[in-house]
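User: Please predict the structure of the protein below. I'd like the answer in structure-token form so I can feed it into my own downstream comparison script.

Assistant: Understood. Taking the following sequence of 230 residues as input:
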Amino acid sequence: MAQFINLTAADGFTLPAYVAEPVGKAKGAIVVLQEIFGVNSHIRAVADGYAAAGYLAVAPATFHRAQVGVDLGYTEADMGAGFGFKTAVDALPATGVMQDIQAAIAYAGTAAEGGKVGIGGYCWGGLLTWRSACALSGLSAAVAYYGGGMTTAEESARQPTCPVLAHFGNKDHWIALDTVEAFKLAHPDVQVHIYEADHGFNCDQRGSYNQAAAKLALERTHAFFAKHLD
């Protein structure tokens, strides 16, 4: 079963989240963080996939403080709009969107009846996943897919408080490979995998979709979450 619910952050702000429930008792929960395209059909499908694997999945609308109801595709116009919304959220006080993610983590832990909570994000959501792993409470594992910006010196200076797995593509023109290698050196405890693929390789709605890389990354992701959440 899947539905949208409302979450309430620590500052009282209310935002929607897509929740996909597994059949039977959840073996844990996963917070799914969107790209710059909103909680669109791809992100909902990702959440549904985790639910099919036995997890409660929660995908908060992390653009909601700047723009409500964002559900974009992958055209150039959509990308421009998404970057605009991301810029607007980035301009908010830093605690803003992080409070929203913390609310999703808290809900996930409760709804999964005390099960462990992981987090997984894509593109901008990958960056927010890294920040969450370093700054938020209640997480037992984190998986970042091609997190734009997370390999900068500023972000790399953060220290995670839970196990982290990160996926990158060696053809990604948004994330320079040398910064990924520097990130690996700075964080030897983080599992970093690099694929023969471009940015967005996990999304079958994008021209950069790479079926082989997506399949391998998902297998590694499921194994990682099984190790730390089940």
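That's the full token string. The two ends are 21 Å apart (CA to CA).
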